[in-house]
Amino acid sequence: MIKNKVVHDFISIALQSGGWMELDRLYLENQVIALVGPVNEEEEIEEETQIKSSKELVQELLLVAEKNELIDLKNFEEKAELNAKLMSFLTPPPSVVNALFSQHYDTSEKEATDYFYLMNLTNGYVNEENNQYKSETLDDYSFIIQSKKWQSTSEFTMCPYCFESEGHGKVENTNKRLIRMNLKGESWGFYYHPKPLLREHSIFTPENHQPLVMNRQLQETMLQLVDVYPHYFVSLDPEVIKLSPHGFLYGGDNQMPLALADNNFMFDIPGFVTVEASLVNWPTSVIRLKTTSKKNLMNALEYVTLKWQQYSYPSLDIIAKDEDGKDLHSVLPVFRKEEDAYIVEMILQDASSEFSRSKAYEAIIHEDAYPVDQLGVINLKQDVEINETNLAVITENMAKQSIFRRPQDGQKAFLRFIDTL
Ligand SMILES: [Zn+2]
C-alpha cells in the first residue's frame, strides 16, 4: 500500500482510540489532509513497523501545514488551535469514552483508569513533560522532588470545573473528557489534571456550580470515591476550597510518599476499639486511622478533629483559637484504601504564622503545588534546580511546618495530645 506514512500512522492511533472503525480510515485521512494540506511524500507502508508517538506525528503534520502555507508556526495561537484539532481525532466523543471506561471498569478499576489516562496522554490533554524528577531522602523521610515544564496556556474563559467545559473552546478544553459518576445520589465528573503535580493527578467535581463545604457529608463522598477508585487517594485543598465558587476534590496514585511512611507509635482511642490509630513517621504531624468500617472511621475522624480543634499547648506555641476566638486548628484529611481497610491520614494544621511555610520555601516551590507537598511530592518552580541548597530549604520548611516539633519536646507533646483522646 502506497501512502503518506505520517498521515497513515496518525490515523492508526486515532483508530486505536476507540472512537472510529477501520472503515473510517480513508475518510479520516481526507479530513486530516483537509486541515494540513496535501502531503506529497508517499511510500510503501508496512503495517508492522513501529510508529511514532502521537505528539511526534502531530509535530510533523504541523510542519506539513506550514509548508503548505496554511499556518505560521511562530503564531502560538494558530499552532495550538491546529494542534487541538488534530488531537481531537484521537479523542472519542464523551459517550464513547464513558462507555469504554465502564467496559474496562468491569475488568478492573485500574484497567479503566489506565485506559482513560493513556487517552489523556495520547491526545496531549495531560501535559506530562518532566523537567527533573528525583526521589530524595531528606532527614530520613522519602520525598519525590520534581520540576515540570508546562506549556503556557491562555486564560480560561469559563469555570474549569463546570461540565460545560468539556470540549469547550478551540484549545484548552477541546479534548477534555469527563467520566460521569453518581456519588451518593449526586452527579459528579472525573478528569485528569492537565498539569499534573503528582502521578495520575485526578480532579473530582460535582456537576453543580457551587462551593464545597468541609463536613461529614463531603467526607463520606470522599470515602465513596476511594471505593470507586481503590488505587487512588482522595483529598482536597482547604485553602482553595474556601475561595473556589465551584468546589472540587483531588486525588491520584495512592502510593505517594506519605502513604508509604511507617507508623511510629500505635495507640488506642477509647470508644473506638475497631480503629487502629498511629502516629506516622513523617516530618509534619500526622495521625493515621485505619478500620474496615467506614462509619467507625468517620466517627473517629470527627472525634479526633474536634479534640484537635480544642487543643492548646502554649509553651510550644500551639494555640487552638486566636484573640478573636477564631479556630486556628484544622485537619487536612487524605483518604485511601488498603484491601478492605479504609485509611485516613489526618495532617494536623495550625493556621498561626508560627507554622506557616517559610519565605525561602515559597520562593522555590511552584505556586500551585500546595498541598501535595504535605503528601511528600514537592513541585519546584520550573527554573529551580534540585540541589543541596534547595533540598535544605525544603527540609527546614517541613520542620517549621511540623506542629509537634521533633525530635526535642515535640514527640512528647504529641503523645500528650494523644492522651487527651
Ligand atoms: Zn463551575
From TrEMBL:
Pathway listed for it? Carbohydrate metabolism; galactose metabolism
Q: GO terms for biological process?
A: galactose metabolic process
Q: Name the UniProt key words of this record, in alphabetical order.
A: Carbohydrate metabolism, Cytoplasm, Galactose metabolism, Nucleotidyltransferase, Transferase
Protein name stated in the entry? Galactose-1-phosphate uridyl transferase N-terminal domain-containing protein
Q: Name one Pfam family in it.
A: GalP_UDP_transf
Q: Which catalysed reactions does the entry list for this protein?
A: alpha-D-galactose 1-phosphate + UDP-alpha-D-glucose = alpha-D-glucose 1-phosphate + UDP-alpha-D-galactose
Keyword Glycoprotein present in the record's keywords: the answer is no
Q: Which GO terms describe its molecular function?
A: UDP-glucose:hexose-1-phosphate uridylyltransferase activity
List the GO cellular component terms.
Answer: cytoplasm
Domain of life, per UniProt, equals Bacteria
Ranges for domain Galactose-1-phosphate uridyl transferase N-terminal come to 53-135
Query: Does this entry carry the keyword S-adenosyl-L-methionine?
Result: no
